[in-house]
Queue: 2 jobs
Job 1
Amino acid sequence: MNPSHAQDEHEVPAQPVAETPVDYMAHIKGMRFFDPHIHMTSRTTDDYQAMADAGIVALIEPAFWLGQPRTGLATFKDYYASLVGWERFRSSQFGIKHYCTIGLNSREANNEALAEEVMELLPLFAYKEGVVGIGEIGFDDQTAAEEKFYRAQLELAKEANLPVQIHTPHRNKKEGTERSMAIALEHGLDPGMVIVDHNNEETVKSVLDRGFWAAFTIYPFTKMGNERMVEVVRQYGPGRIMVNSAADWGISDPLAVPKTAALMVMRGISPDAIRLVTYQNAIDAFAQSGQINEADFATPMLIDQSEKFNGNTILRGGQQPRRDASSLLIK
Ligand SMILES: [Zn+2]
């Protein structure tokens, strides 16, 4: 099985495209969004530009698996280093504040020998600037090895006083979600420090009732589409609910958060509620890391694309850098 986020065994393909209002940008003018789960390493500069144009001002990139298993510790190390280094720089070149969560994903926890080595590496990255949680961790196939490393990382989160971003399994979701929460409680985690991701209508009530944060991934071709998200917010209210795209290397939509906000506007959800589920709740949850300062993205970020990261630039030969006027002034 291929656990790209865009796959859910019980999900029935809905009518694609038609759900997305063509003129959605007209409904969200001036609104600001925070996507708390998106894998930018897999996305293009066009995506960054479109996200900035749609009002996304900040994002969280969870560490996850890359579509095929890594074969050694060095590739994990380079990947984590890129999340706090090059990818953060790339994001800044489009005016988007980039945060990440660091963790060993459930899929690769099943290579136990390598996973043990990764566990020793994690503390070297968990305490770095801009790391807002341990994630995404949890269950995939719900194996004994996954449980072992999930528990070990819950302990690391407690030790580091960081929020936890839980990936719930796409198969046996209800059971996997309940089990993930029970184990987190068993380890003494405050549910207010735990963000349970990839919820659906079957899991949301229990997650909220137990005091956890409930994140929802908007998949472009499955039934947890925008309309369903509107209904969830209508039914449960906006408290402790957040929307994300989980866009990665699979079929996914990096504009899922602003598009969902547009649909909520059209369906009459209040502006306050929309702001909570597409911006503020994610900030409140992950700011418990002490690593998010809203002032960093409260006003448009100055962009100077002539900047370099370790001597490397996003520009290709002959391209003119974008330099915001005020950034020229301080040069
Ligand atoms: Zn993910």
Note: The radius of gyration is 19 Å.
Job 2
Amino acid sequence: MSFLLKNATLPDGTKADLAISDGLFVAAANLPKGHQVIDLGGKQVLPGLVDLHTHLREPGFEEAETVATGSASAVRGGFTAISAMANTSPVADTAGVVEQVFRLGQSAGLCDVFPIGAVTQGLNGLALSEIGAMADSAAQVRVFSDDGKCVFDPLLMRRALEYVKKFDGVIAQHAQEPLLTKDAQMNEGEVSALLGLKGWPAVAEEAIIARDVLLAEHTKSRLHICHLTTAGGVEIIRWAKARGIDVTAEVTPHHLLLTDDYAKDYDPIFKVNPPLRLESDVHALRAGLADGTIDIVATDHAPHSSESKDCEWAEASFGMVGLETALSIVIKTMVEPGLLDYQGVADRLSIAPAQIARYKNHGQSLTVGSVANLTVVDTAAKWIVDRDLMSTRSKNTPFHGFELPGVVTHTFFKGKLACGE
Ligand SMILES: [Zn+2]
């Protein structure tokens, strides 16, 4: 398939026509006859978005999501690469499981699905998994995480950081001190006191971040902090970067917009790990993302079946779906207030995540010879989120009924139209 996309607005704000043929951006003069012409009418284009934190639930929890339905949800949201977290059943802790997920992604064929390997066997936190075998497998895993759980043992964390240096890998830490968060249900503060729910103090996140940036410094290895939620965490990352420590960090769209006030009605749609925090944290996260202290936005797309969300708060699962709303939330929280321009959006949602995970052919400039992974977004359009119209198999979006800016009109994956017409 060949396309001529007329009147595109590039991330730097300049206007151009983009030509795509045989999976690559080409010079318009080299387009074959019979190519399809799409007039974008000035719409914004971005390099295909890259998510470093996606729960796809396959194998094991296919009633909530599969690699195929998650891929469909991804391209609806403008993503051309997603990263399948390891907390499946079986856990992705061997070459066999990561290759299975990788192949499921290839057969879905809508976007790249890069498996993340577990750091410890069965996410048990006790013994390292087959990290080397996963790195050498067909899936060529470079990102390792026990996400959902924290790698709590500092010796194991040190060993993991040392191990992944061999192949330029990175450990992505879910920073949650387990003893300080035992039975915790939401952020520890006025709202948790009001609701009588066990709280989750900011220090439980910050203590692990502080420990691990020091371990990254000691091992001279690469550390990535998943879903930062507190102002104090932003300060620690800022300090670590100033010191030259090789650490990167992510924030989720929901933590850029929502606070624990939303939990006041005990609606478990707002129950998430790590929890929604305070207005002051939201402001610190936005400022950190704007100044580059926080490198990327990652969705932490966490599908759950209705049975595990439509119940009392204490029984409900933690997590929210996020692939189809991520870009709109970033536009609302970062672009509209003037904190990021679209070059910044391209960086935080595509270029930087691809760089952290070493994903080739993603986060590239939209120039002749690059693989044509591309997202088109109508930034002037608004839409109302309807959980029943989404492509994900699960309906646990906290944004149902929200009016959001920015409609993804086309997603091109390797030069093919994966979403849009
Ligand atoms: Zn997590």
Note: DSSP finds twelve helices and 18 strands in the chain.
